[in-house]
Amino acid sequence: MKLFSWLRYATPLDRKLLLAVAILVAVSFALSLRREAGAQVIATVQDRVVFKVPLNIDRTVDLQGPLGTTVLQIAAGKVSILSSPCRNKTCVRMGEVHQDGDLLACLPNKLVIHVERKTLAGKTGHDFVSR
């Protein structure tokens, strides 16, 4: 049986719909690859911002949550969770993130790490503003 033999049973409208869905998926995938690099990291615990720092400053940070301490690492413009007191360690296995809109989350410890493009001054691409 051929791979696309089912297409001969499809109506012209089915084929148009399939083509439209394929184009939509391709465009969505292409747009997801175009995201810009993030400029800052924002950490929230129980919906409170507890940490905000530029992504270009390497450091390791201990963040306290309801379950205990989660260790966050910022290095080479990327952020990752090194360790966490949660049981499954899914947040540790999420790896590194660095693009605008990326998230890391340790839900049992109520910790969310968000990467965004805006810098601390609210502008994009500048560390300082001088007059």
Describe the structure.
The protein has helices at 12-33, 90-93, and strands at 40-45, 48-54, 59-64, 69-75, 78-83, 103-106, 111-116. It contains two helices and seven strands; from the N terminus they run H-E-E-E-E-E-H-E-E. Helices cover 20% and strands 32% of the residues. It starts with 11 loop residues before the first helix and ends in a 15-residue tail after the last strand. The model is unreliable at 124-131 (pLDDT under 50). Strand 6 (103-106) and strand 7 form a beta hairpin. Strands 2-1-7-6 form a four-stranded antiparallel β-sheet. A three-stranded antiparallel β-sheet has the order 3-4-5. The radius of gyration is 21 Å and the shape is elongated. By secondary structure, the protein is of the alpha+beta class.
For this entry, give a set of tags:
20% helix, 131 residues, alpha+beta, three-stranded antiparallel sheet
Taken as a percent bin, the fraction of beta residues is 25-35%
Return Rg in Å: 21 Å
Largest beta sheet: strand ordering: 2-1-7-6
Give the biggest beta sheet.
4 strands, antiparallel
Helix run count: 2
* Strand count: 7
Task: Give the N-to-C terminal Cα separation.
Answer: 72 Å
The rough form would be described as: elongated
Series of secondary-structure elements, N-terminal to C-terminal: HEEEEEHEE
Unreliable runs: 124-131
| Class by alpha and beta content | alpha+beta
Oligomer: single chain
Q: What share of the residues lie within helices?
A: 10-25%
Average residue pLDDT: 84
